[in-house]
Structures are given as C-alpha cells and as structure tokens.
C-alpha cells in the first residue's frame, strides 16, 4: 500500500466517491500512520441524530442505513461516503450559525446518498484513468497545504482536459440536484428551507474573499447560479409545521463550545476566550460549560467541579452536565460518587452507550469488576466496531484473571485499529489460554483466520 503524507486524510475521504473506499483512518506501514480523529462526544452525536433522523426519513432511506460522524479537521468540509456514512469536519459544525444551517448541510449529503451519486460518479469515471485523477487531486492538495494557488492551477492544467471537464461538470450537476432534494427534505421535516440558501451565501462570500478555495468548495462546486436556483426552490416550498424538528440553538452552541474546548491546543487561550465571553454575558450556559471542560482538561479539577455544580444547580437533570461531573469525580479519585452521578445521567438517557461505558469505568475503578464486565460485554455486542469498549473489556477481564477473554478482547481492539502485529499476538494468546473444548477457542481461531485474510486483501489494494 502506498504511504500517504499527512495532508492526504481529508482528500481520501473527500474523493472516496471516485475510488470506492472510504477509510476513517489512513494506515501505511507500522512506522507511518495518519489517523483521522473522530469526535465522539455523546452530546454532539445526539445533536446530529436529532437533526438527521427526520431528514433521513424524508429522503425515504432506512434510518439505520445512515450514520453521522464528525472528524477533527480545521477545514470546512462534509462528505457522503458510499457505505452510508456521512462525515462532517469539526470546522463546519463550528461555522454553522444555527441548527437549521447544519441541518441543511446534512440534508445535502443525505441527498447524495438517496440519489446514488457516488455510484453514478464511479460509472462516469471509468473512462478516466485513476492516475490522472490522483495527479489532479494531489496537485490541489499540495496547493492548499503550501498556500499557493499556482500549484493547484498547474495541477489542473497539467491533468487531462477530459478528466477535469468530466469530473467538474458531473460534480456541479450533482451538487445542484442535491440542493433541490435537500430543500424538499428540509421542508418535509419542518426545517426552514431557506437555511440552505443562507449557508450557500456564506460559502459564496468566502469563496470571493480568498485566493485558495476551502476543501468544501473543491468538492462542492459553488456558483452564483447555484445559489439563485436554491433561493428559487426554497421560496416555492412550505415547511411542514407539524414535524416540529429539534432546533434548539443552545444545543448547537453547547456542541460548538465542546469542540473548541477539546480542540484548542492552548488551554490558556481557550480559557481566555470563554472568560471574555462571560464578561459580556455571565449567564451564558454554553460558555460556562466550555470553560468547565477547559479547566478539567488542564487539570484544574477543583475549579471545574465548582463550575459544573453551579450549572447543575440550574439544570439538575441535564444528562451531559451530570456526565461531566462524573468525569471530574473520576479524575478526583472518587469512583463511588461518580457511579451515582452516571446512574442519575442514565435515568435521563437510558440508551446512551457512552454513559453506560462511563458507569463501567467507575465500576472498574471502584473494584466492582463483575458489574463492569457485564456492561462492557453488552456494549461490545451492541457496538462491535467501537475499539474503546473492547479495550476496556480486555483490561477488566485481565484484572479478573480471565486471561483468554482478556486477550480475545484486546485482539478485537487491535484488529479494529488494523494493527496486524498486536492483533495476531493477542489472538494467539487467546487461543492458548482457552481449552480446546471451549467455544471461545474456536472463535479466537476463526477470527484470527478471517483477520489475516482481510488484512492480506487490504494490502493488495
């Protein structure tokens, strides 16, 4: 497999529609990897679900066929992948001025899925060499990374004209079609269809003010005509008022505070931003929440504890404020108290996998290993592609001296990370620690065989 430099991850995702694969982590050899960080805040995921579910339904797609993800990336971008995964860069979520604007981007990407655009693009690109497309995309990426538009222009000029024309014309056509479908999905779901127009106007203004377009504009070609067409379509539809979509602006603001607190590399800068905001509005809940997170991340748990208690005084049943308090209590070495708080949070969100996981962690740190293992086994069955759950189960089973089960969980963890060396080691150890008469012995052998076959195939691609 070719080893790709660090600037490639967003391009692999962006252009996955052309090549038919869409990894959420770019793996080279064991010495060089360029992982893509997926933000897994339960509050962020809940916001996406609340906005996205009615849109998926309006598009006539099965609810379980579409999954929403946010990746850590400072470029405004979003993409629909062939396997039903919709990926949004964190910068795009931060840029949206209202939940409706975020819903409009989600509707647009859902429209690509519903219209089968990725399949059509694959067919249209059969006549164009992969090499020419790779060369074009590589040049665009180099131009963006070097802040040099001439590099990008040279790449476009140097690539075959047929490849450029076919790719861009096809993308423009499909972008306009996706806009029209998205506007109908928004109206059918009760959202304001003009939110699509507002977002496009913001992008158009940005496009005019910069010499190098954002990745979103490379993959979602934008023109004045496209904005006018969207405006005309939005004015012709009426939202279904009975739909009542969840568009609480505070929910988006809280998520934006979470993203900033989690991604700003300088804690002092993050703290200053929230403190400055609070000087003008001391009761701003998202800013107070963001400041709480920053203080916990920087190790100032005492201050964070005081702030989260103040927020809970106002909203004692908020599951995510309770979650934050539970995490602070764990940082303070108080797993018993954290257990009680996570239990309170689960009373509000009984199906939230993250809260169940946090409760399992509090059980683990409190020495209640059997209770922790019970929760984690259930989570690994319900969410088999979540590496963190497998890892924690491996830790707990190891502490319980159930070595076969511990190695099997760790093998699955490393298999999900595509770490061949560690996965094979733990599968072999699991096999050695299970008696041949036990079913788990056969399971470990079978999974190891399947993992090796899949890993071999991925190397050949």
What letter string, H or E per element, gives the SSE order?
HHEEEHEEEHHHHHHHHHHHHHHHHHHHHH
Please describe the biggest sheet, giving its number of strands, its sense, and whether it closes into a barrel. 4 strands, mixed
Q: What is the oligomeric state here?
A: single chain
CATH architecture of the domain at 9-243: 2-Layer Sandwich
Number of helical regions:
24
Q: What's the level 1 CATH class of the domain at 9-243?
A: Alpha Beta
Looking at the structure, the CATH topology of the domain at 9-243 is: Zincin-like
What is the CATH superfamily of the domain at 9-243? Metalloproteases ("zincins"), catalytic domain
Query: Using only CA atoms, what is the Rg?
Result: 24 Å
Structural class: mainly alpha
Relative helix content:
55-70%
Strand content: under 5%
């Amino acid at each position: 497999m070719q080893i790709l430099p660090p600037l490639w991850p967003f391009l692999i995702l962006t252009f996955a529609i052309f090549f038919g694969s869409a990894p959420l982590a770019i793996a080279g050899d064991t010495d060089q990897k360029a992982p893509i960080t997926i933000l897994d805040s339960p509050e962020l995921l809940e916001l996406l679900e609340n906005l996205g579910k009615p849109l998926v339904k309006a598009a006539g797609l099965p609810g379980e066929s579409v999954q929403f993800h946010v990746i850590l990336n400072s470029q405004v971008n979003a993409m629909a992948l062939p396997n039903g995964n919709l990926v949004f860069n964190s910068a795009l979520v931060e840029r949206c001025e209202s939940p409706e604007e975020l819903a409009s981007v989600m509707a647009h990407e859902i429209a690509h899925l519903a219209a089968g655009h990725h399949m059509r693009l694959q067919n249209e690109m059969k006549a164009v060499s992969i090499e020419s497309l790779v060369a074009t995309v590589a040049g665009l990426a180099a131009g963006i990374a070097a802040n040099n538009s001439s590099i990008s222009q040279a790449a476009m000029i140097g690539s075959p004209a047929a490849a450029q024309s076919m790719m861009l014309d096809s993308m423009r056509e499909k972008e306009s079609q996706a806009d029209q479908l998205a506007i109908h999905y928004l109206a059918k779901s009760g959202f304001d269809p003009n939110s699509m127009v507002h977002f496009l106007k913001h992008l158009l203004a940005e496009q005019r003010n910069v010499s190098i377009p954002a990745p979103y504009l490379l993959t979602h070609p934008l023109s004045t005509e496209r904005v006018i067409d969207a405006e005309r379509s939005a004015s012709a539809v009426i939202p279904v008022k009975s739909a009542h979509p969840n568009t609480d602006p505070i929910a988006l603001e809280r998520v934006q505070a979470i993203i900033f607190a989690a991604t700003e590399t300088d804690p002092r800068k993050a703290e200053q931003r929230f403190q400055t905001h609070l000087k003008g509005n001391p009761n701003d809940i998202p800013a107070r929440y963001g400041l709480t997170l920053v203080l916990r991340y920087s190790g100032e748990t005492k201050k964070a504890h005081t702030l989260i208690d103040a927020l809970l005084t106002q909203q004692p049943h908020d599951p995510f404020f309770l979650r934050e308090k539970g995490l602070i209590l764990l940082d303070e070495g108080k797993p018993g108290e954290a257990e009680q708080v996570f239990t309170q949070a689960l009373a509000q969100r009984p199906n939230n996998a993250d809260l169940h996981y946090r409760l399992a962690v509090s059980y683990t740190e409190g020495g209640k290993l059997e209770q922790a293992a019970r929760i984690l086994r259930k989570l690994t069955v319900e969410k088999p592609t979540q590496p963190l759950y497998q890892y924690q189960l491996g830790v707990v089973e190891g502490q319980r001296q159930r070595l076969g089960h511990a190695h099997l969980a760790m093998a699955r963890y490393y298999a999900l990370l595509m770490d061949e060396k560690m996965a094979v080691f733990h599968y072999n150890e699991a096999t050695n620690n299970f008696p041949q008469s036990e079913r788990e012995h056969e399971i470990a052998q079978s999974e190891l065989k399947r993992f090796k076959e899949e890993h071999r195939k991925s190397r050949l691609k």
